[in-house]
């Protein structure tokens, strides 16, 4: 299976969410680290997992590249790309989904990763 087939346009979210219990995880995933991959695997154990990869100016990787990385994870059922301020407009009003938005945690994990990389570069 080409895991890029998991990447769907926002217009298809409503149809996908009608297929059973879903959890929606929102994040930048910039960079996609082992910690983020493990977190998504754990979240996807009990429900289908739709990941919204956020577009943001100044990201290390383009949203489309991050979406491909997220889609490659076994526990992820579907991926879409959106902006923080408008991705919810594609969600059906009566969708029975659990939404996980850990922006602060993700920011802390990203900063820790950046510090690790910077520290290793300075040590050389």
List keywords for this structure.
124 residues; alpha/beta; 4 helices; 4 strands
Report a brief summary of the structure:
With about 120 residues, this protein is of the alpha/beta class. The protein contains 4 helices and 4 strands, in the order αβαβαββα.
The end-to-end span amounts to 41 Å
β-strand amount: 15-25%
Question: Mean pLDDT across all residues, rounded?
Answer: 88
Q: Specify the number of helices.
A: 4
Secondary-structure-derived class: alpha/beta
What is the top-level CATH class?
Answer: Alpha Beta
CATH architecture classification name: 3-Layer(aba) Sandwich
Shape descriptor reads: elongated
Total number of domains: 1
Annotated CATH topology: Rossmann fold
Strand arrangement in the largest pleated sheet: 3-2-1-4
| Unreliable runs | none
SSE order, as H and E? Answer: HEHEHEEH
Helix content: 25-40%
Largest β sheet strand count, sense and barrel closure: 4 strands, parallel
The overall strand count is 4
Radius of gyration: 15 Å
